[in-house]
Amino acid sequence: MTVNGCLQLGLYLAVLLLLVKPLGGYMAAVFSDESNRVTRVGAPVERMLYRVAGISPDEEMTWTRYAWAMLIFNVLGLFVVYALLRLQAWLPLNPQKMENVAPDLAMNTAISFATNTNWQGYSGESTLSYLTQMLGLTVQNFLSAATGIAVLTAVIRGFVRRSSTTIGNFWVDLTRSTLYILLPLSFVLAIALVWQGVPQNFSEYKSVPLVEQTTAAKTVKDADGKDVTTSTPVTEQSLPLGPAASQIAIKQLGTNGGGYYGANSAYPYENPTPLSDFLESLSILLIPAALCYTFGKMVGDTRQGWALLAAMLVIFVPLLLACTAAEQAGNPALSGLGVDQTASAVQAGGNMEGKETRFGIVGSARWATATTAASNGSVDSMHDSFTPLGGLVPIWLIQLGEVIFGGVGSGLYGMLAFAVVAVFIAGLMVGRTPEYLGKKIEAYEMKMASLVVLIPCAMVVVGTAVVISAPQGLALLTTNSGVHGFSEVLYNLSSASNNNGSAFGGMNPNTPFINTLLGICMFFARFPLAIGMLAIAGSLAAKKHVPVSAGTLPTHTPLFVTLLAITVVIVGALTFLPALALGPIAEHLAMLGK
Amino acid sequence: MDFVYLLLLVLLVGATSAFLRLCARLEPRQ
């Protein structure tokens, strides 16, 4: 790694950590039961929204009612997106005359955006109308992210409340997440992105003459059935425009990741400069990191929040450094051919295949690590072109369950499921009933936490097995077979089954077979897990507080941070090491042997 | 083809609803 690289990564982490406390404290104020300066400012708008929607904000919900509200609301949103995709050709704001989307792709995309996954089997600029992008996808970006924060807030109340049958009001939590957190932050980021050159308009696509003309080769059959290659001069380029900045801002902040353009944040209009790259990659981790402080503040002991953040960083930082070092080291097979891969004043060095020169090694590795640690899934480089070990990092980060920062809300409630498992393991070691934050962890909480941890793991391994066993699955591998082809399948199933949404590339993402399989994985990775965590919240809220005693395991100490990090890593390692050995690890050994 | 995929969505929602009911039934009385 270069000194410049270390400084860039250090600056990124420093800015992120500096923002945790102010933003985390602000979010805690947003969800406070008592009136405060933050909620008083937005109170008129909030009250109006409740009145229009017929919501009684003071009405508390049991965990089952909260879960039903969450499920019904998100499913309705899913059907709205499906309808928009199937009817867009006849709807307004479609200057490029985009056709209706096929039913299988519409189903996959609707689930993808309702579940905060944002897996994309299409290119936005050649498939979707402006209305679909705005009313369908951007709205779902806000609502799916707000749902994650709402569920987390309810889970935190489960730890805080004593002998209570309720865990809050879903509609209030959803409204406050959107109104006070996601909308203002997205507005600020969208303005910054427009400043950096990201389009925000309703113009038709512009055709401009190419500075350097080129030719397009096309192979067709002649009358005798022989292949004939024709060469057509290309003199013009189409520049896709539209309301991009507003969608890109929330796709980063809401850990959604679905790009306005097909190449996502590698596309110059989606991410034009190194500064926009820094701001967008910072936005990926901003809310998930700050929510740790919010958690500490809401449970009345900020050390608890810092401990969870520390456990995330203990895993994240070494993997960030490993990914950057692997990409900076480049490919030894190319060194053998005399290719210069050293960093210098005129080149980034290392493995630059699939990376944008304006971002270089560090910007690309930083983004790849952040986007897979969080369940964001946007990309500024092609992960398929990473070195085997560089590519292993994003795959494994996804497979750890999207709890190292994770999605907004969903990452932290996933980490809390691991915390429940960790205190249970510690309880087994010393022979005492496990406790976490003054609540006894008993059989019901352990069953639910186990389901939350294991459901995504099961879908990754079963889904990967289905793809590599079925002819329709193997047919998806159009550019690579062997170990790299297996890595592509493993990555993409891991991505869908953990609501990440990024793709390893190289695999055809749009056939009825894969659209259906990934749709099922994305749906079950989101809603049953949220329900499981709400069940834990309801059960904990009903319990009495257990006073701290000599047998209580402190959960704010380095010992607990280590135990929690080890629990996450062991689950990930035990489940996925055999699969990783068949993919990126085998590929790395093969590369060294060449 | 819309019918097939809409039916699949209904089945996914139905399975999740059943999971929710099961979680509620398993919850111990405090």
Which SSEs are present, and which pair or pack?
The complex is a heterodimer of chains A (594) and B (30).
Chain A: H1 3-30, H2 37-53, H3 63-87, H4 103-114, H5 124-127, H6 130-160, H7 170-196, E1 206-221, E2 227-239, H8 244-253, H9 274-298, H10 302-329, H11 332-336, H12 360-373, H13 388-399, H14 410-430, E3 435-436, E4 439-440, H15 443-469, H16 471-474, H17 482-497, H18 512-541, H19 558-593
Antiparallel strand pairs in A: 1-2, 3-4
Chain B: H1 2-26
General description of the model:
The complex is a heterodimer of chains A (594) and B (30). With 594 residues, chain A is mostly helical. Chain A has 19 helices and 4 strands. Chain A has helices at 3-30, 37-53, 63-87, 103-114, 124-127, 130-160, 170-196, 244-253, 274-298, 302-329, 332-336, 360-373, 388-399, 410-430, 443-469, 471-474, 482-497, 512-541, 558-593; strands spanning 206-221, 227-239, 435-436, 439-440. Chain A has a two-stranded antiparallel ribbon with strand order 1-2. A two-stranded antiparallel sheet of chain A has the order 3-4. In chain A, strand 1 and strand 2 form a beta hairpin. The longest helix of chain A has 36 residues, at 558-593. Chain A is globular. Chain A starts with a helix and ends with a helix. The mean pLDDT of chain A is 94. The model of chain B has no long low-confidence stretch (mean pLDDT 93). In chain B, 20% of the residues are buried. Helices cover 83% and strands 0% of the residues of chain B. Chain B is built from 1 helix and no strands. Chain B has 30 residues and is mainly alpha-helical. Classes of the chains: A mainly alpha (594), B mainly alpha (30). At the A-B interface, helix 3, helix 4, helix 15 and helix 18 of A face helix 1 of B.
